[in-house]
Design goal:
By secondary structure, this protein is mainly α. The chain has one domain. It is built from 24 helices and two strands. The chain is globular, with a radius of gyration of 25 Å. It holds the Pfam family DcuC. It comes from Secundilactobacillus angelensis. Keywords: Cell membrane, Membrane, Transmembrane, Transmembrane helix.
Length: 505
C-alpha cells in the first residue's frame, strides 16, 4: 500500500539580512558605474563641493574585484573615501562598556527599584518610566536591552488594573521615541555625523526640543489609554485575553526584583556621568559663543602644571573639541572605573567587556559594509553625477519641502535597511551634500534620518525588539498596529512640521 502523498511545504519569503541587502546594493552600484556618466565637482580647500562646478570626466567602471574590496576600503579607507574604522572601534568599545554595566545588573535592578518605589501609584510610573527609557534611546539607542524589562513590568501593570499592552507601550514607545529624537546615539547620530564630518554635538539642541515634544505626545497617548482601561477594562485592546493574562502573569514575580546595592547605585551614577561627559565633550561650545572657552582654558592650565600636566598627558583635547577618538577613550576609561567601583574581578571584567564587544561586532562590521557603497560610487566617479542630478532637481525647491521629502524617503529605506548605522553609512554621503544644495544644514538632514528610523522602529515586523516584546506579552502584531496607528500619524505630522520649521531657521 502506497503512503499518501504529502503536499510540499510552501516556502515563506524571508527578508534577507542587512549584510545581503547591502552587498546587493554594492553590486547594483558597481553595475551602474558602467551606465551612469562619470563626473566631478570642484572643491574648496576644506574639501567641500562648490555648487555649479560639475564637469564630465573619464569613466572608471567598477568590477568584481572592486565589489569585494569595497567593504575592506569601507573600513580602512582609500584615496577617495574615509574609512569607518573610528566609528566601528567606538561601537565595539561602547559595546564593551555596556557589557560591563550589564554584568552588574545595575540598569535592570534600577528599573525594578523604581517600580517598587511607586507600588500603589503605578499610574505615576508611566511618565517616569517612559522618560527613563527615552533617555536610554536618545543616548545609546536602547533597543534589545529593553527585553529584560517586559516580564518585570507586565505583571505590575495587569495587577493594578491596566493591561499587558500598557506595559509594552511604556517600554517600546518610550525607548523608540528616544531613538526617533536621538541626541548623541552613537549608532545613529554618531555614524551619520562621522559620514558628513560633523560633530555629534552639532544640532543637539533642536534634537532635544524634538525629544521633549514627541515624548510628551507619547506619554499623553499611553497615559490616556491606561486611564481608559483603568476605568473600564472592556476598553482594553486585549480585553479578550484578559483572564488568560491574569492567569499567565503573576504580580508576585516582580515583587522581589530590583533590590539595589550600594555598588550598583555607584555604577548607575557612573553610567549617567559617562553620557553626560560625552555630551559636554561633543558640543562645540566656542562655535555657539566665542566667549565660551572655559574648557580650552582649563585644559591648557592643567597641561601647564608641572608633573600633574605630564601625568595627565600633554595631548589632552579640550571638551567641546572631542570626536570619536576622545569619546572612545572615555568609554574605555569609564569601563575600568566601573570595574573598580563595583569591585569586579579582573577576569569577570575582561569577559564582560569582550562579551559586550562581541554583541556589537555585527553593528561595527555592517558600518564598514555599508560604507562600501560609497567606496564604489566614489571610485566609479558617479557620486558627483548623482549629486549633480540632485542639484538640478532641487532647483526652486524650498528648504522645508526638501527636508520633509528626505524624512519620507528614509521611512521605506528604514524598512529596507533596518540597521540604523548601516542606513546612515549607505546613504548619508549622498543625502547630506544634496541638503547643502537645497540650503539645509547637514545636522538637520541627520535629524530627519533619525526621526524616520525611530518612527519605523515602533511598528516594523522585521525588528526583533518589536516582535520579542509582543511575544512576551502574547499580543498579536495586528492588535499593536491598530492601537498605535493614531500615535504614528501624530508623530509623523509633528515631526514633519518640526523639520520644516527647523530647515528654514
Amino acid at each position: 500500500m502506497q503512503a499518501p502523498k504529502t503536499e510540499p511545504k510552501k516556502r515563506r519569503f524571508k527578508m534577507p539580512s542587512a549584510y545581503t541587502i547591502l552587498f546587493m546594493i554594492i553590486t547594483l552600484v558597481a553595475v551602474l558605474t558602467w551606465v551612469i556618466p562619470a563626473g566631478a565637482y570642484n572643491t574648496d580647500k576644506a574639501g567641500n563641493i562648490i555648487a555649479h562646478t560639475y564637469k564630465s570626466v573619464t569613466a572608471n567602471p567598477q568590477g568584481i574585484w572592486d565589489v569585494f574590496m569595497a567593504p575592506v576600503y569601507g573600513m580602512i579607507g582609500n584615496d577617495h573615501t574615509e574609512g569607518a574604522i573610528s566609528i566601528s572601534l567606538f561601537i565595539l568599545v561602547i559595546g564593551g562598556f555596556l557589557g560591563v554595566v550589564n554584568k552588574t545588573k545595575a540598569l535592570d535592578d534600577g528599573i525594578g527599584a523604581v517600580v517598587r518605589r511607586y507600588k500603589g501609584k503605578e499610574k505615576r510610573l508611566i511618565p517616569i518610566l517612559m522618560i527613563l527609557f527615552a533617555l536610554g534611546g536618545t543616548t545609546y539607542g536602547m533597543a534589545e536591552e529593553t527585553i529584560a524589562f517586559y516580564p518585570l513590568l507586565i505583571p505590575v501593570m495587569i495587577g493594578v488594573g491596566f493591561d499587558s499592552l500598557t506595559a509594552v507601550a511604556i517600554i517600546l514607545v518610550g525607548s523608540q521615541i528616544g531613538v526617533l529624537a536621538s541626541t548623541v546615539n552613537p549608532f545613529a547620530t554618531g555614524v551619520a555625523s562621522q559620514t558628513l564630518d560633523l560633530s555629534m554635538g552639532q544640532g543637539i539642541f533642536p534634537r532635544l526640543a524634538l525629544l521633549v515634544i514627541t515624548l510628551v505626545l507619547g506619554i499623553w497617548y499611553v497615559y490616556r489609554y491606561a486611564s481608559k482601561v483603568e476605568k473600564d477594562p472592556s476598553k482594553s485592546a486585549v480585553f479578550e485575553q484578559r483572564q488568560e493574562d491574569l492567569d499567565r502573569f503573576s504580580v508576585d514575580d516582580a515583587d522581589d526584583a530590583g533590590t539595589m546595592t550600594g555598588r550598583q547605585k555607584g555604577v548607575l551614577a557612573l553610567f549617567g556621568l559617562t553620557f553626560l561627559l560625552m555630551i559636554i565633550g561633543l558640543i562645540p561650545w566656542s562655535t555657539i559663543n566665542d566667549k565660551w572657552t572655559f574648557f580650552e582654558s582649563a585644559t591648557k592650565w592643567l597641561a601647564s602644571i608641572p608633573v600633574i600636566g605630564n601625568i595627565l598627558g600633554s595631548d589632552m583635547v579640550p571638551m567641546g573639541d572631542w570626536y570619536f577618538s576622545e569619546i572612545t577613550m572615555l568609554f574605555l576609561l569609564m569601563s575600568v572605573v566601573v570595574m573598580f567601583v563595583y569591585k569586579m574581578k579582573e577576569a569577570d571584567f575582561i569577559n564582560a567587556f569582550i562579551g559586550g564587544m562581541a554583541e556589537f561586532l555585527s553593528v561595527a562590521i555592517i558600518v564598514a559594509v555599508a560604507r562600501g557603497i560609497q567606496v564604489v560610487m566614489n571610485d566609479g566617479l558617479i557620486t558627483d553625477t548623482v549629486l549633480h542630478w540632485g542639484e538640478m532637481g532641487l532647483k526652486g525647491l524650498s528648504e522645508s519641502v526638501f527636508i520633509i521629502i528626505t524624512y519620507i524617503f528614509y521611512i521605506p529605506m528604514s524598512f529596507l535597511i533596518p540597521s540604523t548605522s548601516g542606513l546612515a553609512s549607505a546613504t548619508m554621503g549622498i543625502i547630506g551634500p544634496m541638503g547643502k544644495f537645497a540650503g539645509v544644514d547637514g545636522s538637520v538632514v541627520i535629524t530627519a534620518y533619525q526621526a524616520a528610523s525611530g518612527w519605523v522602529n515602533l511598528i516594523t515586523p522585521t525588528s526583533g525588539v518589536v516582535m520579542g516584546a509582543l511575544a512576551i506579552a502574547h499580543i498579536n502584531i495586528s492588535v499593536w498596529w491598530k492601537w498605535i496607528a493614531k500615535l504614528m500619524i501624530y508623530l509623523f505630522v509633528v515631526t514633519s512640521v518640526f523639520l520644516g520649521i527647523l530647515a528654514i531657521l
